[in-house]
Amino acid sequence: MPQFSDLSDQQIAAIVTWIHYARRQGRYQELTAATVTPGDAAAGKTYFDRACSSCHAIDRDLSGIGRKYDAAALRAAVLDPKGLKVERSFSVDRLKDTKLTAAEQRHHALLENYSADDVANLVAYLASSP
Questions:
Q1: Where are the domains of the chain?
Q2: Greatest Cα-to-Cα distance within the chain, rounded to the nearest angstrom
Q3: Rounded Cα gap, residues 62 and 114, in angstroms
Q4: CB within 8 A of 75, min separation 6: which ones?
Q5: Structure confidence at residue 29 (pLDDT)
Q6: What is the pLDDT of residues 47-86, one digit of tens each?
Q7: What is the percentage of the chain residues whose pLDDT exceeds 70?
């Protein structure tokens, strides 16, 4: 293993950022290529309560989502949330928007660690939500 003592903290941070990006891209490709299987809504609720409910609430944010979207659309939204795809801005008010940055980081961490079963269960739960 090479030494990295000659790299600055900024360079090391850039390498770490790239490694996480590459891992997310790989997981995304694996999960989108995986065979779609029916999930377990009860296991999806457990996963949602553990990983998602700190930011999302079924009764507030996701009310009726199972009636609005089919399973394929829900799966796509879980893997690549459109709400996080915003135009980058360097205006002072946007630079101070830590909520969006935190949400993006949280979803990136989830994507790096999802299993195909996690996604199937989460989609089953969201599809069954009233």
A1: 9-128
A2: 56
A3: 20
A4: 36, 119, 123
A5: 84
A6: 999 988 888 877 777 778 888 888 888 888 888 887 666 6
A7: 85
